[in-house]
Amino acid sequence: MALITTMVLITSILSLVLATVSFWLPQMTPDHEKLSPYECGFDPLGSARLPFSLRFFLIAILFLLFDLEIALLLPLPWGDQLPSPLTTFLWASIILTLLTLGLIYEWLQGGLEWAE
């Protein structure tokens, strides 16, 4: 029972701290792009026949990749109930390491630069 109480207390404190930081940290000066109804990588008032930038698709694919990472690691807290929780931690660490190395590679290659 003490373990559950401790975990609930830690998650509550962490949630409050993150909510407080996210409230005070952002800049409150929106520019023209932020006030625009479309934030999808192209000008919404131009021609509809203009091609998309490949960088927009790269950013979208990277977002999906890291979103799937969260889905893969979501059952990780229940892994400590297995006979060998170290194996679960090892596989999760391998997944995170591979994704981090891929992100570093994309960053160094300039794939995350939005402006050309």
Automatic annotation (TrEMBL):
GO cellular component, one term: NADH dehydrogenase complex
Record's signal peptide: 1-19
Enzyme class: translocase
Membrane disposition: Multi-pass membrane protein
Localization of this protein: Mitochondrion membrane
The keyword Translocase is assigned to this record: yes
Principal localisation: mitochondrion
Catalytic activity, as annotated: a ubiquinone + NADH + 5 H(+)(in) = a ubiquinol + NAD(+) + 4 H(+)(out)
Transmembrane region(s): 52-76, 88-108
Keyword list, A-Z: Electron transport, Membrane, Mitochondrion, NAD, Respiratory chain, Signal, Translocase, Transmembrane, Transmembrane helix, Transport, Ubiquinone
Gene Ontology MF terms: NADH dehydrogenase (ubiquinone) activity
EC id: 7.1.1.2
Pfam assignment, any one: Oxidored_q4
Function summary: Core subunit of the mitochondrial membrane respiratory chain NADH dehydrogenase (Complex I) which catalyzes electron transfer from NADH through the respiratory chain, using ubiquinone as an electron acceptor. Essential for the catalytic activity of complex I.
Protein family (similarity comment): Belongs to the complex I subunit 3 family.
Protein name per UniProt: NADH-ubiquinone oxidoreductase chain 3
Organism: Evoxymetopon poeyi (Poey's scabbardfish)
